[in-house]
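Final report, closing paragraph on structural work. Over the funding period we assembled a curated collection of sequence-structure pairs, and we close with a single example.
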Amino acid sequence: MGYNVIMPNLPPREGLRYNIWKKEFDKIKEDLKGEIIVVAHSAGNPFIIKYIRENHIDIKLYIGLAGFSDIYKMEGREDLYEAVKSVTPTQDEINNFRNNVKTRYGIYSDTDHIVPREILEKHIKNIDATGIMIPNIGHMGKKSNLQTIPKVIEIIKSEGKEKL
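Its predicted structure, as stored:
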């Protein structure tokens, strides 16, 4: 069983605005057909919730890493707050996601230094996903020194194309 992997070239958080990321996703929109598996990290989670609603894209399997769907503030990080605000989905967008994405997982850590734990856990509840807490992997980005997250591969293999 093989997969085509598409990784859009998204600007870093300094360029995080829904309309900017949307332009990049629009370049690959025609490839988003069939049995789509989405693995989203951090702000990619609320973005994808908004984007699939706006573009009527069906997703069979979603794995959110360090995901959130609520606005939150970090002390001294007004830039991050403004970026988060631009991608935060509405309740209607969240409901659409919950109703139209067949299988949903949310992976988070107890040591995330960017997104507060209560926001991570609320996201999983908001989208009615299966939550998986992995200790001590931080925000799963550069500071965490992670090359892979084996649980993601395990989920993809266990859900398999025949289950999708």
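The beta strands are 37-41, 59-65, 101-108, 130-133. Residues 150-163 form the longest helix (14 residues). We thank the funder for supporting this effort.
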